[in-house]
Amino acid sequence: MSGYRLSKRSLKELDGVHPILAFAVMQAIAITKQDFMVFDGLRTPEEQAKLVAKGSSKTNNSCHLYGLAVDLVAFVDGKPSWEERYYAGIRAAMQEIISRYDLPIEWGYAKWGWDMPHWQITTLEGRDAREVYDIRKIRGR
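Structure (tokenized):
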């Protein structure tokens, strides 16, 4: 046990995130050696477009739009940090949980070589996860 817990803000960011991914994050915070926060979960198309415009994201069809992605940002000295040196602990905790429970979650950095905070579900039931699960449709929006 790490002694770390998710903040109210992090828990709010998990609202609308696929239960498998939310479960993994909740389990990972309990075993991580590096505190982290859920910086971003479900996004609106407008939020996504702004991130693409400023170069923080490369697609307008992000898994964040469907509730299939989270950005886990290192929490250091009371604030978020994007310094690469802090991400090994987060990665180790997430990979331990993914392996332990055989979860269909991928790390953005391993997939693309950038985006260290990003974790997503890409495939569900052998199909593109966005075709299977879309929180906006589930919620009727």
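The two ends are 38 Å apart (CA to CA). The chain has one domain: 8-138.
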